[in-house]
From TrEMBL:
This is Cation diffusion facilitator CzcD-associated flavoprotein CzcO. It comes from the Bacteria. PANTHER family: FAD_NAD(P)-BINDING DOMAIN-CONTAINING PROTEIN-RELATED (PTHR42877:SF4), L-ORNITHINE N(5)-MONOOXYGENASE-RELATED (PTHR42877). One of its GO terms (molecular function) is N,N-dimethylaniline monooxygenase activity. Keywords: FAD, Flavoprotein, Oxidoreductase. Belongs to the FAD-binding monooxygenase family. It comes from Nonomuraea fuscirosea. Pfam families: FMO-like.
Amino acid sequence: MAPSVAIVGAGFGGLCMAIRLERAGIRSYTVFEKAGDLGGTWRDNSYPGAGCDIPSHLYSYSFEKYSSWSRRYPEQPEILGYLDHCADKYHVRGKIRFRTEVRRAAFDGSAWRVTTAAEDGAERTERFDVVVMGVGQLNRPRMPDIPGMSDFEGVSFHSSRWNHEHDLTGRRVAVIGNGSSAAQFIPRVAERAGHLSVFQRTPNWVIPKPDATFGPLVRLAFHYVPGLQRAYREWIYRYAEGTLYPALAQGWSEGMLKQRALRHLRDQVPDPELRARLTPGYPPGCKRVVIDSSFYPALTRPDVSLVTDKIVRITPKGVETTEGSYEVDTIVYGTGFRSTEFLAPMEVIGRDGLSLEQRWKDGAEAYLGISLPAFPNLFMLYGPNTNLGHNSIIFMIECQVNHVMACLPYLAGHGPIEVRPEAMAAWRRQLDAAMARMVWGEGCRSWYKTADGRVTNNWPGPTTLYRRLTARPPRPAYRSAGAT
Ligand code: NAP
């Protein structure tokens, strides 16, 4: 009999899992989604200018090619449209239980007891053989801890909870943060605001985004020319893997990446004083490189100022820094996500009664970023150490789903399975050795690592290696739960 599967989250990960089960003829699954619609991060991040800096044809499932992309780099509405298209085409929408939040999952010796809460708070517990977590790494906004934030008398919100009711036209706006999200919305906000003050704590490396629209002829070609989409996708993938990955591994293209970013800065920012304030003092790639061609030009506008003084507090009227006060009507927090708190605030209890929170007190980890000893039949998509700074996360999600699909038949003969502690220990050693080469370790603060500097979010190898590792059969790394 097919196992029953609970999938948590209806974003790129959860939908991919559901589609693959559906295509394998396994219909005994339910997708739990706390929001009223699917799309995950692409539903939440609807800020002006939201889009993806990975090309459309690669930022999509390998099994669902799409000829309709209107541009080289997709914008948020189009990505959401793609996910809607996939959910309908593969008949998974009807299996999503919307407005249902998973609060707790506890292994009871043979299956998972999954406790959900409906919108009215009513709880319900159901049993599933398998749980697949598809909640991602960037789903919980991180509001900063700046004194006085609650005293602000104007309107404030986080970039992933954009207040579309609030018209920015003519207003004095403060943006706190300048990461990939802020770089995308700052140019749009600048167009409307009376004055925009961008509060930058640390400059980012920025490289151009060579965006372009696909005209009807190109789209027709993608649709009708056999193999064209596949070849184009493969070319983008190989380019990212062959040139960007070595830069992050401090290899041959590291200098090239830096030169490209410095040239972009020189080309777009003529003022040497502003350029100096925008030049990072750490190696490119240590933080996520921003890929954008409109961010710098926005900062050179006369109605935009870049503030690099330290923020001291938020006052009822605006932002106070070590050098002065800035009166504003609106504050937008582009301050990122609580990325190292994987799966929080869900309570997940393994077979020995230990919670994931306890298990991960020194930082999250998982075998292949997918599974853990003592948490039988629990799988994660986009889990610890599977984020990329150089290629499409959809590729990684598909590798993870392949791995889960390979594990499912193995359950039939073995009951609940879990990773052997030896496999986990070997994985940790392998990861640590690869991590030592990477640029993320020192010299910058980033969402890739915990407060004490452990990189819990990123995958340190080539994605080709990750594909090979996840394609291995579950044996010998897995065993029946509780066996020694
Ligand atoms: P982020 O990269 O974590 O950036 C947060 C920003 O807020 C940083 O500039 C940070 O400064 C600043 N900040 C945080 N706390 C602050 C404080 N107390 N005072 C002053 N400044 C503060 O977040 P994000 O821009 O939302 O991006 C997160 C990730 O989402 C990206 O790295 C990327 O992986 C993904 N994303 C992808 C795309 C895409 O096109 N593919 C687009 C958007 C987002 P410091 O640098 O000094 O910490």
